[in-house]
Amino acid sequence: MSASDRSPGGPRVHRATVTRIHEHLPGTRSLFLRLPAGERLAFTPGQFVSCALPVGDDPPLVRAYSLASSPEDDELELCVDRVAAGPGSGHLFTLAPGAEVEFTGPFGSFALAEPPPAPLVFVGEGAGVAPLRPMVRRALERGGSQPITILHGARYEQELIYRDDFEAWAARHPRLTWEPVLRTTEAEVGSIDALEGLVLERFVRADADRSRRFWICAVGALPGRLRDALRAAGYERKAVRVEQW
Ligand SMILES: Cc1cc2nc3c(=O)[nH]c(=O)nc-3n(C[C@H](O)[C@H](O)[C@H](O)COP(=O)(O)OP(=O)(O)OC[C@H]3O[C@@H](n4cnc5c(N)ncnc54)[C@H](O)[C@@H]3O)c2cc1C
To answer: pTM score > 0.85 for this model?
Structure first.
Protein backbone atom coordinates (compact mmCIF):
# COMPACT_ATOMS: atom_id res chain seq x y z
CA MET A 1 0.00 0.00 0.00
CA SER A 2 1.43 3.38 -0.94
CA ALA A 3 1.21 6.50 1.19
CA SER A 4 -1.39 7.84 -1.25
CA ASP A 5 -3.70 5.02 -0.23
CA ARG A 6 -4.28 6.68 3.11
CA SER A 7 -5.88 10.01 3.69
CA PRO A 8 -3.62 11.89 6.14
CA GLY A 9 -4.01 10.08 9.46
CA GLY A 10 -7.18 8.54 8.14
CA PRO A 11 -8.50 5.23 6.95
CA ARG A 12 -7.35 3.33 3.92
CA VAL A 13 -8.58 4.52 0.56
CA HIS A 14 -9.98 1.82 -1.74
CA ARG A 15 -10.38 2.16 -5.49
CA ALA A 16 -12.91 -0.14 -7.12
CA THR A 17 -14.09 -0.49 -10.70
CA VAL A 18 -17.73 -0.46 -11.75
CA THR A 19 -18.37 -3.80 -13.47
CA ARG A 20 -22.09 -3.48 -14.17
CA ILE A 21 -25.16 -1.45 -13.39
CA HIS A 22 -28.59 -2.77 -12.56
CA GLU A 23 -31.50 -0.38 -12.93
CA HIS A 24 -34.12 -1.30 -10.30
CA LEU A 25 -36.40 1.49 -11.52
CA PRO A 26 -35.88 4.94 -13.01
CA GLY A 27 -33.99 6.84 -10.31
CA THR A 28 -32.75 3.81 -8.36
CA ARG A 29 -29.85 1.70 -9.53
CA SER A 30 -27.20 -0.63 -8.20
CA LEU A 31 -23.54 -0.17 -9.00
CA PHE A 32 -21.51 -3.36 -8.76
CA LEU A 33 -17.89 -2.70 -7.82
CA ARG A 34 -14.83 -4.91 -8.03
CA LEU A 35 -11.69 -4.27 -6.00
CA PRO A 36 -8.25 -4.91 -7.48
CA ALA A 37 -7.18 -8.58 -7.62
CA GLY A 38 -6.33 -9.95 -4.20
CA GLU A 39 -8.09 -7.12 -2.32
CA ARG A 40 -11.21 -7.79 -0.26
CA LEU A 41 -13.25 -5.52 1.95
CA ALA A 42 -13.94 -7.04 5.35
CA PHE A 43 -17.21 -5.61 6.62
CA THR A 44 -20.20 -6.43 8.77
CA PRO A 45 -23.60 -6.67 7.07
CA GLY A 46 -25.31 -3.27 7.31
CA GLN A 47 -22.17 -1.10 7.20
CA PHE A 48 -21.52 1.69 4.72
CA VAL A 49 -18.62 3.17 2.78
CA SER A 50 -17.75 6.86 2.31
CA CYS A 51 -17.31 7.64 -1.38
CA ALA A 52 -15.06 10.52 -2.43
CA LEU A 53 -16.75 11.84 -5.54
CA PRO A 54 -14.92 14.12 -7.97
CA VAL A 55 -17.65 16.72 -8.27
CA GLY A 56 -16.66 20.33 -8.90
CA ASP A 57 -13.32 21.60 -7.60
CA ASP A 58 -11.20 20.03 -4.86
CA PRO A 59 -11.82 18.60 -2.34
CA PRO A 60 -14.01 15.71 -3.49
CA LEU A 61 -17.57 15.48 -2.26
CA VAL A 62 -17.94 12.77 0.39
CA ARG A 63 -21.18 10.79 0.52
CA ALA A 64 -22.07 7.63 2.45
CA TYR A 65 -23.52 4.59 0.68
CA SER A 66 -24.58 1.37 2.37
CA LEU A 67 -23.27 -1.96 1.19
CA ALA A 68 -26.23 -3.82 -0.28
CA SER A 69 -24.08 -6.89 -0.88
CA SER A 70 -22.89 -9.47 1.64
CA PRO A 71 -19.28 -9.83 2.79
CA GLU A 72 -19.16 -13.25 1.08
CA ASP A 73 -20.00 -11.81 -2.36
CA ASP A 74 -17.26 -11.31 -4.94
CA GLU A 75 -18.42 -7.80 -5.77
CA LEU A 76 -19.59 -4.88 -3.68
CA GLU A 77 -23.02 -3.48 -4.42
CA LEU A 78 -24.18 0.07 -3.78
CA CYS A 79 -27.86 0.77 -4.33
CA VAL A 80 -28.26 4.46 -5.12
CA ASP A 81 -31.29 6.73 -5.35
CA ARG A 82 -30.96 9.76 -7.59
CA VAL A 83 -31.80 12.79 -5.46
CA ALA A 84 -33.19 15.76 -7.40
CA ALA A 85 -30.30 18.20 -7.99
CA GLY A 86 -28.13 16.09 -5.67
CA PRO A 87 -24.48 16.40 -6.70
CA GLY A 88 -23.30 13.10 -5.18
CA SER A 89 -26.03 10.79 -6.39
CA GLY A 90 -26.10 12.71 -9.69
CA HIS A 91 -22.42 11.92 -10.19
CA LEU A 92 -22.90 8.22 -9.43
CA PHE A 93 -25.66 8.14 -12.05
CA THR A 94 -23.17 9.30 -14.72
CA LEU A 95 -20.87 6.33 -14.12
CA ALA A 96 -20.63 3.50 -16.64
CA PRO A 97 -18.87 0.13 -16.41
CA GLY A 98 -15.12 0.71 -16.23
CA ALA A 99 -15.40 3.85 -14.09
CA GLU A 100 -13.48 4.03 -10.82
CA VAL A 101 -15.04 4.74 -7.42
CA GLU A 102 -12.84 5.80 -4.53
CA PHE A 103 -14.01 5.15 -1.00
CA THR A 104 -12.98 4.61 2.60
CA GLY A 105 -14.61 2.27 5.05
CA PRO A 106 -16.38 0.19 6.07
CA PHE A 107 -17.98 2.30 8.80
CA GLY A 108 -20.99 2.25 11.06
CA SER A 109 -22.58 0.40 13.94
CA PHE A 110 -25.89 -0.05 12.13
CA ALA A 111 -24.93 -3.65 11.47
CA LEU A 112 -25.58 -7.23 12.39
CA ALA A 113 -22.62 -9.55 12.92
CA GLU A 114 -24.37 -12.40 14.75
CA PRO A 115 -28.15 -12.59 15.13
CA PRO A 116 -29.29 -12.40 18.75
CA PRO A 117 -31.74 -15.12 19.91
CA ALA A 118 -34.71 -12.73 19.81
CA PRO A 119 -37.34 -11.86 17.22
CA LEU A 120 -35.66 -9.69 14.58
CA VAL A 121 -37.56 -6.85 12.91
CA PHE A 122 -36.14 -5.00 9.90
CA VAL A 123 -37.91 -1.85 8.78
CA GLY A 124 -36.85 -0.10 5.58
CA GLU A 125 -38.38 2.49 3.32
CA GLY A 126 -37.54 2.56 -0.39
CA ALA A 127 -33.84 2.01 -0.95
CA GLY A 128 -33.49 1.92 2.85
CA VAL A 129 -33.81 -1.85 2.56
CA ALA A 130 -30.31 -1.94 0.97
CA PRO A 131 -28.36 -2.29 4.24
CA LEU A 132 -31.06 -4.57 5.67
CA ARG A 133 -30.64 -7.10 2.87
CA PRO A 134 -27.17 -8.41 3.91
CA MET A 135 -28.26 -8.36 7.57
CA VAL A 136 -31.28 -10.55 6.84
CA ARG A 137 -29.13 -12.85 4.74
CA ARG A 138 -26.62 -13.18 7.59
CA ALA A 139 -29.39 -13.93 10.09
CA LEU A 140 -30.82 -16.64 7.84
CA GLU A 141 -27.45 -18.19 7.11
CA ARG A 142 -26.53 -18.40 10.78
CA GLY A 143 -29.63 -20.54 11.44
CA GLY A 144 -31.76 -20.31 14.55
CA SER A 145 -35.46 -20.34 15.16
CA GLN A 146 -36.27 -16.72 15.96
CA PRO A 147 -38.84 -15.12 13.65
CA ILE A 148 -37.51 -12.52 11.22
CA THR A 149 -39.78 -9.81 9.84
CA ILE A 150 -39.05 -7.34 7.06
CA LEU A 151 -41.46 -4.43 6.79
CA HIS A 152 -40.73 -2.82 3.45
CA GLY A 153 -42.25 0.59 2.94
CA ALA A 154 -42.62 2.12 -0.51
CA ARG A 155 -44.81 4.56 -2.40
CA TYR A 156 -45.85 2.00 -4.97
CA GLU A 157 -45.20 -1.64 -5.93
CA GLN A 158 -42.39 -0.91 -8.41
CA GLU A 159 -40.39 0.69 -5.60
CA LEU A 160 -40.20 -2.62 -3.74
CA ILE A 161 -36.60 -3.26 -4.76
CA TYR A 162 -35.07 -6.66 -3.94
CA ARG A 163 -38.60 -8.04 -3.77
CA ASP A 164 -37.56 -11.19 -5.69
CA ASP A 165 -34.80 -11.91 -3.17
CA PHE A 166 -37.00 -11.35 -0.16
CA GLU A 167 -39.81 -13.49 -1.58
CA ALA A 168 -37.40 -16.29 -2.50
CA TRP A 169 -35.82 -16.24 0.97
CA ALA A 170 -39.23 -16.23 2.65
CA ALA A 171 -40.28 -19.23 0.54
CA ARG A 172 -37.19 -21.16 1.69
CA HIS A 173 -37.31 -20.01 5.32
CA PRO A 174 -40.78 -20.12 6.89
CA ARG A 175 -39.54 -18.04 9.85
CA LEU A 176 -38.96 -15.08 7.51
CA THR A 177 -41.87 -12.80 6.68
CA TRP A 178 -41.46 -10.11 4.04
CA GLU A 179 -44.29 -7.62 4.12
CA PRO A 180 -44.68 -4.74 1.68
CA VAL A 181 -46.26 -1.63 3.17
CA LEU A 182 -47.44 0.80 0.52
CA ARG A 183 -48.41 4.39 1.17
CA THR A 184 -52.09 4.61 0.55
CA THR A 185 -52.39 8.31 -0.16
CA GLU A 186 -50.01 11.13 -1.01
CA ALA A 187 -51.42 12.97 2.00
CA GLU A 188 -49.57 10.47 4.22
CA VAL A 189 -46.22 11.85 3.10
CA GLY A 190 -44.74 13.81 5.97
CA SER A 191 -47.31 12.67 8.51
CA ILE A 192 -47.73 9.37 10.33
CA ASP A 193 -47.42 7.15 7.33
CA ALA A 194 -48.51 3.56 6.80
CA LEU A 195 -45.13 2.12 7.77
CA GLU A 196 -44.80 4.12 10.97
CA GLY A 197 -48.39 3.38 11.96
CA LEU A 198 -47.94 -0.34 11.37
CA VAL A 199 -44.75 -0.56 13.44
CA LEU A 200 -46.41 1.23 16.38
CA GLU A 201 -49.61 -0.78 16.12
CA ARG A 202 -47.96 -4.16 15.87
CA PHE A 203 -44.92 -3.81 18.10
CA VAL A 204 -46.10 -1.33 20.72
CA ARG A 205 -49.88 -1.47 21.07
CA ALA A 206 -50.60 -5.11 20.13
CA ASP A 207 -48.71 -6.83 22.95
CA ALA A 208 -46.34 -6.42 25.88
CA ASP A 209 -43.46 -8.37 24.31
CA ARG A 210 -40.39 -6.13 24.45
CA SER A 211 -37.79 -8.77 23.50
CA ARG A 212 -37.69 -7.81 19.81
CA ARG A 213 -34.65 -6.26 18.16
CA PHE A 214 -35.08 -3.60 15.47
CA TRP A 215 -33.04 -2.25 12.56
CA ILE A 216 -34.71 0.71 10.88
CA CYS A 217 -33.43 2.61 7.84
CA ALA A 218 -35.03 5.41 5.81
CA VAL A 219 -34.53 8.92 4.51
CA GLY A 220 -35.52 11.72 6.87
CA ALA A 221 -37.08 11.74 10.31
CA LEU A 222 -38.87 8.37 10.37
CA PRO A 223 -36.02 6.30 11.89
CA GLY A 224 -35.53 8.77 14.76
CA ARG A 225 -39.25 8.99 15.46
CA LEU A 226 -39.59 5.20 15.56
CA ARG A 227 -36.50 4.82 17.76
CA ASP A 228 -37.89 7.29 20.28
CA ALA A 229 -41.35 5.74 20.25
CA LEU A 230 -40.06 2.18 20.63
CA ARG A 231 -37.70 3.10 23.46
CA ALA A 232 -40.42 5.08 25.20
CA ALA A 233 -42.65 2.01 24.92
CA GLY A 234 -40.18 -0.10 26.88
CA TYR A 235 -37.70 -1.53 24.39
CA GLU A 236 -34.09 -1.38 25.61
CA ARG A 237 -31.82 1.24 24.05
CA LYS A 238 -29.62 -1.33 22.35
CA ALA A 239 -32.65 -3.17 20.97
CA VAL A 240 -33.42 -0.37 18.50
CA ARG A 241 -30.84 0.56 15.90
CA VAL A 242 -31.57 3.14 13.26
CA GLU A 243 -29.90 4.72 10.27
CA GLN A 244 -31.13 8.00 8.86
CA TRP A 245 -30.18 9.00 5.30
C1 LIG B 1 -24.91 6.04 6.70
C2 LIG B 1 -25.56 6.46 5.40
C3 LIG B 1 -25.77 5.50 4.41
C4 LIG B 1 -26.37 5.87 3.20
N5 LIG B 1 -26.60 4.91 2.26
C6 LIG B 1 -27.21 5.26 1.10
C7 LIG B 1 -27.48 4.26 0.10
O8 LIG B 1 -27.15 3.07 0.25
N9 LIG B 1 -28.12 4.66 -1.02
C10 LIG B 1 -28.50 5.97 -1.23
O11 LIG B 1 -29.08 6.26 -2.28
N12 LIG B 1 -28.23 6.93 -0.31
C13 LIG B 1 -27.58 6.61 0.83
N14 LIG B 1 -27.30 7.58 1.75
C15 LIG B 1 -27.55 9.01 1.38
C16 LIG B 1 -26.31 9.55 0.63
O17 LIG B 1 -25.20 9.61 1.50
C18 LIG B 1 -26.56 10.97 0.11
O19 LIG B 1 -27.05 11.78 1.15
C20 LIG B 1 -27.52 11.00 -1.05
O21 LIG B 1 -27.01 10.26 -2.15
C22 LIG B 1 -27.78 12.47 -1.47
O23 LIG B 1 -26.56 13.07 -1.79
P24 LIG B 1 -26.49 14.16 -2.95
O25 LIG B 1 -25.13 14.78 -2.95
O26 LIG B 1 -26.95 13.54 -4.25
O27 LIG B 1 -27.60 15.19 -2.58
P28 LIG B 1 -27.65 16.34 -1.43
O29 LIG B 1 -27.77 17.66 -2.08
O30 LIG B 1 -26.52 16.14 -0.49
O31 LIG B 1 -29.07 15.96 -0.85
C32 LIG B 1 -29.24 15.74 0.47
C33 LIG B 1 -30.70 15.53 0.74
O34 LIG B 1 -31.13 14.31 0.13
C35 LIG B 1 -31.79 13.51 1.10
N36 LIG B 1 -31.55 12.12 0.75
C37 LIG B 1 -30.51 11.35 1.12
N38 LIG B 1 -30.64 10.10 0.60
C39 LIG B 1 -31.77 10.12 -0.12
C40 LIG B 1 -32.43 9.12 -0.87
N41 LIG B 1 -31.91 7.88 -0.97
N42 LIG B 1 -33.57 9.45 -1.48
C43 LIG B 1 -34.09 10.69 -1.38
N44 LIG B 1 -33.52 11.68 -0.65
C45 LIG B 1 -32.37 11.39 -0.03
C46 LIG B 1 -31.17 13.92 2.40
O47 LIG B 1 -32.00 13.64 3.50
C48 LIG B 1 -30.96 15.40 2.22
O49 LIG B 1 -32.15 16.09 2.52
C50 LIG B 1 -26.74 7.22 2.97
C51 LIG B 1 -26.52 8.17 3.99
C52 LIG B 1 -25.95 7.80 5.18
C53 LIG B 1 -25.74 8.85 6.25
So the answer is: yes
